[in-house]
């Protein structure tokens, strides 16, 4: 394997494996961990023992991620398995997502934080409906880069012809999805060809191995930094998770506040920056105040940025509750009750458009109805099917929601926190769908 130049070294990369059932996702991850020396000796011993108990003569690398008893009995992945490993080039977090259609919600969960999707295709079977669905969902949750890993190349007669055929099929399908990059690699997860080492069976392919690509792939944060010339920050978004009132003493020994005066607002900054003296607007009420204090577990700060968990104190008392949003007034999103969105329906029970559901967006939870179902997306052709009456499991559709009270939302492509939500059935408390706010939202 070629050496990685110091300039190419990068930080943590999160990636998710996706694809149809039995395309080899768990085996691929096991091969990555095994061949990159990412396993401890006791893990290898346990893996060998588990393989012998299943009557196998060779080590079953898929057992590294298929940890649930039900998964091992059925030979499939049900839940999302996360694994961590590192090479001299960078650190990785892998999400091994399930391929079965009834576990699509788990694939969306794993993909929602990933920088790269590794989409596996069985070279013997070609693209499957779940392959296309996972590709669509990967782009839907904002993953900019896709690796098409054509697996099981050792099981086809003309490997190069099979690879080229599947690559052409996928490009025809994926052209309209808007990935920043699609990189194709032929692999054999079982034998290890083109995963970590090049192997000897695919000499006709002269591109990067999978690990070489992952070691140099940009992250979403890299893309955001490049899209903001001059270091310009994204607008401030601070979802209020908790309102803290101190009625028995100071919040900090050196804060200078008298008994019973402290009221703070806790949460994690979703985007942008907060500094002492900055003016904020609290949505949906629209009231304004200035930041008087920024507190963390380590003490006071003059400045805080995205992904930091902080407590903000304001210079005046305003009516703020859990689920409200702080934003800079000049870049604040619109608080609206009418939300254009795209949803993926997860539940076995179909949507009943006439009944209310709960929408959970960030820290806010409100009742809502599906005001209209504009069209469903045929994931095989990406064709729009107008006017569906309902949504069934794994259906993806453009909808309009009418919420009981206003929500402050951004388009998902602008902000993954304020632009995403889940749909909950009030009666069963099941998560029945996930959604992203469309470009029509103001922000």
* Shape assignment: globular
Number of DSSP strand runs: 23
Which consecutive residue ranges, at least 5 long each, have pLDDT under 50?
A: 1-8, 68-78, 249-259
| CATH level-1 class of the largest domain | Alpha Beta
Mean pLDDT: 86
- What is the CATH superfamily classification of the largest domain? P-loop containing nucleotide triphosphate hydrolases
CATH-assigned fold name of the largest domain: Rossmann fold
Rg over C-alpha atoms, rounded to the nearest angstrom: 24 Å
Helical run tally: 8
| Oligomeric state, counting identical vs distinct chains | single chain
Helix percentage range: 10-25%
Brief descriptors of the model:
single chain; 443 residues; alpha+beta; Elongation Factor Tu (Ef-tu), domain 3; six-stranded mixed sheet; 23 strands; 33% strand; disordered N terminus
Brief account:
This protein is α+β, with helices and mostly antiparallel strands and 443 residues long. The chain contains eight helices and 23 strands. The protein has helices at 25-35, 41-53, 69-74, 104-111, 129-140, 159-174, 210-216, 220-227; strands at residues 13-19, 81-86, 91-96, 116-122, 145-151, 181-186, 237-239, 242-246, 262-268, 273-275, 279-283, 287-296, 299-301, 303-305, 309-314, 325-327, 335-345, 357-361, 364-378, 383-386, 396-408, 420-424, 431-437.
